[in-house]
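Record filed below.
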Amino acid sequence: MSNKIKVTQIGSRIGAKTNQIACLRGLGLRKINSTAVLENTPEVRGMIRKVNHLVRIETAV
């Protein structure tokens, strides 16, 4: 497993639940097509799981 993952927001947070919006903010995503490179930890994975329909996950190089 890689130490870093790249997360890109592909869906709008309009109409999303409050906890999903909070997860997007916690991941550092603000707008569609914004990208964040994060550590691959269980906490980050849990946040991604909450919003998996709004983000794309890639392995960071």
Q: What stands out?
A: The beta strands are 4-9, 35-39, 55-59. The chain has a mean pLDDT of 94.
